[in-house]
Amino acid sequence: MRVLVTGAAGFIGSHVLEALAAAGHEVRGLDSLSPAVHNGVPAYIPAGTDLRVSDVRDPSAVEDALEGMDAVCHLAAMVGLGVSVADLPLYADVNVTGTAVLLAAMARKDVSRLVLSSSMVVYGEGSYQCSRHGLVRPLPRSLPDLDAGVFEPRCPACGGSLAWATVPETAALDPRNAYATSKLAQEHLTANWARVTGGAAAALRYHNVYGPRMPRDTPYSGVAAIFRSALENGVPPRVFEDGGQRRDFVHVRDVADANVLALHGLGTPDGGAEGAAALAGTLRAYNVASGTPHTVGEMATELAEAFGGSLEPKVTGEYRLGDVRHIVASPQAAADDLSFRAQIGFREGMREFATAELRAPAATS
Questions:
Q1: Which one-letter DSSP state was computed for residue 364?
Q2: Is the dihedral of CA 169, 174, 180, 184 positive or negative?
Q3: Per-residue pLDDT of the chain (365 residues; tens, 9 = 90+)
Q4: Which residues pair with 315 in a beta bridge?
Q5: Residues linked to residue 73 through DSSP beta bridges, in sequence order
Q6: Which of 121, 149, 170, 337 is deepest in the core (most CB within 10 A)?
Q7: Cβ(74)–Cβ(102) under 8 Å?
Q8: Residue 343: how many CA atoms within 13 Å on its side-chain side?
Q9: What is the pLDDT at residue 272?
């Protein structure tokens, strides 16, 4: 299959590009190579790669990149939380307008298969169980609670304590920052496109992705990269809240494999189906996660031990508005429909990540 990968020079996109090529697909990349992110084409992009340097918001450039393609893996996006109201226009422009431009061009070029990179952040808080009221959806944590070091969300009915539960794809969606809202908008636009064109689409809701080529020392670095940079600089990692925030850390190579499997599930150009996934005219969403959650504190400790264990993580009690307490996925649907199961374990992945090549920030003039 001939596949266009948007955001192909990025952290996840470059791994998707490699995984598709390794699976025998003909791949083409599209990336703006924004000078705020990249100093030209990254060294990890293989020589001879068909990489088009254009912005996904440029209709003519996107249409040219789609020429001859059978499918798209869409990863181009502005990442990070977007915690300020001032961030709203940029996230809406890059992520929402960019996706709309891509979908319109796909309709014009009759490209009918799309794997969309979405995110766990569309859920907001995770799933919780109250001993009195059963499965509940907590309200955003209050400032007085956070200031007092009470980090666990409360039951919205009785104010009591809650136990976390896994989040299925059918959970209510509740984006709580600019990035999350833009990712949900991407899903809605994709569903619109699929219904109107009869296209087939899968939205992969990535959980906490880490691994080689993760951006380093930027405002958009993931927490794993931030902790690693601290350790490299001889500084203990600073763990927010009490370190008990529970996440699912999934390795980037597993995420890339999920893209390949999702693409196969959408069917082949001759109409043959290679797996049970999205049907024509619909969008199906899948959690892409390891299925084995860990706390942020555990992740910091694992990385610190990989660096020799001389620097213990420092739990600060600080917090960020917009962060959620626990978000733990059920990856069962991806296993059932796509045969996706993460292969890289937490300890193995973190030990590799401790010495993996990260992407340096773009040089400033």
A1: P
A2: positive
A3: 999 999 999 999 999 999 999 999 999 999 999 877 888 899 999 999 999 999 999 999 999 999 999 999 999 999 875 557 888 999 999 999 999 999 999 999 999 999 999 999 999 888 999 999 999 988 889 999 999 999 999 999 999 999 999 999 999 998 988 899 999 999 999 999 999 999 999 999 999 999 999 988 765 568 999 999 999 999 999 999 999 999 999 999 999 999 999 999 997 666 555 444 446 899 999 999 999 999 999 999 999 999 998 999 999 999 988 788 999 999 999 999 999 999 999 999 999 999 999 887 776 43
A4: 239
A5: 5, 115
A6: 121
A7: yes
A8: 9
A9: 56
Alpha-carbon torsion (263, 27, 186, 12), positive or negative: positive
Using CA atoms, how far apart are residues 52 and 62, in angstroms rounded to an integer? 9
Rg (CA), the chain: 20
In sequence order, what DSSP letters do the residues of 23-79 get, joined into one string? TT-EEEEEE---TTT-SSS-TTSPTT--EEE--TT-HHHHHHHHTT-SEEEE-----
Q: How far apart are CA 300 and CA 311, in angstroms?
A: 10
Judge contact between 44 and 86, C-beta under 8 A: no
Amino acid at 283: L
Tally of residues, the chain? 365
H runs (alpha helix) in the chain: 11-22, 59-66, 88-91, 98-109, 143-147, 178-197, 223-232, 252-265, 296-306, 332-338, 346-353
Structure tokens at 222: 């993931």
**Distance of CA 340 to CAs 38, 132, 346, Å?**
31, 36, 17
Q: What are phi and psi of 206, to 5 degrees?
A: -70, 140
* Separation of alpha carbons 280 and 266, rounded Å: 8
Q: 70 near 110, Cβ under 8 Å?
A: no
pLDDT of residue 222: 82
Report d(CA 204, CA 363) in Å as an integer.
32
Helix (H) or strand (E) holding 295: strand 294-295
Q: How far apart are CA 48 and CA 45, in angstroms?
A: 9
